[in-house]
Every structure is written in structure tokens, then in C-alpha cells.
UniProtKB/TrEMBL annotation:
This is AraC family transcriptional regulator. PANTHER family: RIGHT ORIGIN-BINDING PROTEIN (PTHR47504:SF5). Residues 8-106 form the HTH araC/xylS-type domain. The keyword tRNA-binding does not apply. It comes from Psychrobacillus soli.
Length: 287
């Protein structure tokens, strides 16, 4: 089963069980995937976490039921998984910009999130430039933080991490230390395979380095791998995000490879990332 088919099967499972308790472990199992890789792929393709999708869909259905029936708001809150009417009202207001009581009186516009249908998009007018190479293991040095992918913490946390590194001078230091097999500063996604269903990932900002390592930095060994390397052209972050979507919605469904599950790399050059012709790369280990 391909990535797209797996995700659609999981979405169908979510939709059939929206009024039941759902766990990331159950959903990922339906897709025959680890929690980390399913959540990451889903987020790349949809720009939201699984938790966000479930919440938005439940509140969409709750709003429809609210205006089309006489169910009590307290009963509606319990039905859609909220422990208290207050928690339901807070979440409802955040999505629909009005209280459940106001929605029942039809005092404003509701925001509806429809059921997702994942489709493969093949666009010959937007070719993907890539190459496949094999590289021996190498060392990177840098800093890391751990994020919970089940909650979508990585989606908000990683951009803030980059802001921090760019502000405190670590980014400049990593460019200075870079003398290894890959030129540039790297964003590295790492999952401990022994804990892959925990939903936790380490995200490194690092550079390839041979030799001594400053005491304020840590080291990570990138294993020997077969890599598919994609060119990315355009300003950050949109060019990188768009290329990730192309990879999972177009390239993997059209090729006989799957991700190997070892660290993936984003490679950034020391140029202005806002330039229209900014060049970067995505490295994915494959099998």
C-alpha cells in the first residue's frame, strides 16, 4: 500500500470513529506506519497535525448538530469528547469565533472543515530535480530539541528553534565549523526506532564536521545510506514546504522507493533565504 492510500485509509478510520476515543497509535496502525512517520507525512501533506484535524472535524459536526437539532449544549459537549461545557465552549469559540449559544441563534458565520480526501497530483509543468547517491556515514555537530509529533508540537516549535539559532549566533558558528561531506547548515529529523511509536522526534540544527567539536555543541552520527536528494529553489520557508509536499504526494507514489526511517536532512546554503533564487536541498534516505 502506498503512502497516499495509507493516509486515506487512516482518514476513513478517523471519520468512522469521530465520536469515539482515538489514539495516534490506533490511527498509525491502520496506515501500517509508526506514529512518527504517519504524523509527519500527514502534516507535510495537509499543513496540520492529526490532533488538529480531529478537533476541527468534531467541532464542524458539533456546529451542524447544534443548529439542526434541539440537543442541549451540555450533552453536545460530552458527545464530542469534551469533559466540561466550558472546555467545549472555549474550543467552539476558537474555531467558529462565537459561542455555541450564539451559533444556535444563527448570529454569525460558522467555519466548516470538510472531510479530507488525499489525491495524487501529477504536474508535468513542475518537474522535480533529484539524484540518488550513496554515502558512507559521517558526523554532524550542533544543537537539538525534542518535540512531540502527536500534538503537532514540532510544527510550531521547529520554526521558533531556527529563530533562536539565527538570533544567538549558533547558525554562523555552524557555517564556520562546516568542513564535512555536506556543505551548508542542516536541519536533521531523528527518531529513535526503539521508541518510534512514542511520537517523539529530535530535531537538530547542525553541520557536517570532521575534527574537534566545541564543548557547547553535541555530535550525531549519520549512518551509511542511499539518499535521494531533491533540489529546492525559492525563498524560505514556502519553497521547502512545497517541495516536501511534492515529494510525498508525487515522487514517492510514482517511484519504487520508501523512506528508510533513518535521519532526514534539509540543507541550507549561507545565502539570503528570502531571495527568489535561494538554493537548498532535501536529503531522504531510501530503501
Amino acid at each position: 500500500m502506498g503512502w497516499v492510500e495509507s493516509i486515506q485509509k487512516a482518514i476513513n478510520y478517523i471519520e468512522a470513529n469521530l465520536l469515539n476515543e482515538l489514539t495516534m497509535e490506533q490511527i498509525a496502525k491502520v496506515a501500517n506506519s509508526s506514529v512518527f512517520h504517519f504524523q509527519r507525512t500527514f502534516a507535510i501533506l495537509t499543513d496540520m497535525s492529526i490532533a488538529d484535524y480531529i478537533r476541527r472535524r468534531r467541532l464542524t459536526l458539533a456546529a451542524q448538530e447544534l443548529i439542526n437539532s434541539d440537543i442541549k449544549i451540555i450533552d453536545l459537549s460530552y458527545k464530542y469528547g469534551y469533559d466540561t461545557p466550558e472546555a467545549f465552549t472555549k474550543a467552539f469559540r476558537k474555531q467558529h469565533d462565537m459561542t455555541p449559544s450564539a451559533a444556535r441563534k444563527k448570529l454569525g458565520k460558522l467555519q466548516s472543515y470538510n472531510r479530507l480526501v488525499i489525491q495524487v497530483s501529477l504536474k508535468g509543468a513542475e518537474p522535480m530535480n533529484y539524484k540518488i547517491v550513496e554515502k558512507e556515514s559521517f558526523q554532524v555537530v550542533g544543537v537539538k530539541k525534542t518535540y512531540n509529533c502527536k500534538t503537532g508540537e514540532n510544527l510550531q516549535g521547529i520554526p521558533l528553534f531556527w529563530d533562536e539559532v539565527n538570533t544567538n549566533g549558533t547558525d554562523d558558528l555552524l557555517f564556520q565549523l562546516n568542513n564535512g561531506k555536506i556543505e551548508g547548515v542542516l536541519g536533521v529529523c531523528v527518531v529513535d526506532e526503539s521508541q518510534k511509536d512514542s511520537g517523539l522526534m529530535d530535531y537538530w540544527i547542525a553541520s557536517a564536521r570532521v575534527g574537534d567539536v566545541p564543548g557547547n555543541l553535541s555530535t550525531l552520527e549519520i549512518p551509511t545510506s542511499k539518499w535521494v536528494i531533491f533540489e529546492v529553489h525559492g525563498p524560505m520557508p514556502h519553497a521547502m514546504q512545497d517541495t516536501w509536499k511534492q515529494i510525498y504526494s508525487e515522487w514517492f507514489p510514482s517511484n519504487p522507493y520508501v523512506p528508510a526511517g533513518t535521519p532526514e536532512l534539509e540543507v541550507y546554503s549561507n545565502e539570503n533565504p528570502n531571495n527568489a533564487d535561494y538554493y537548498s536541498e532535501i536529503w531522504i534516505p531510501i530503501k
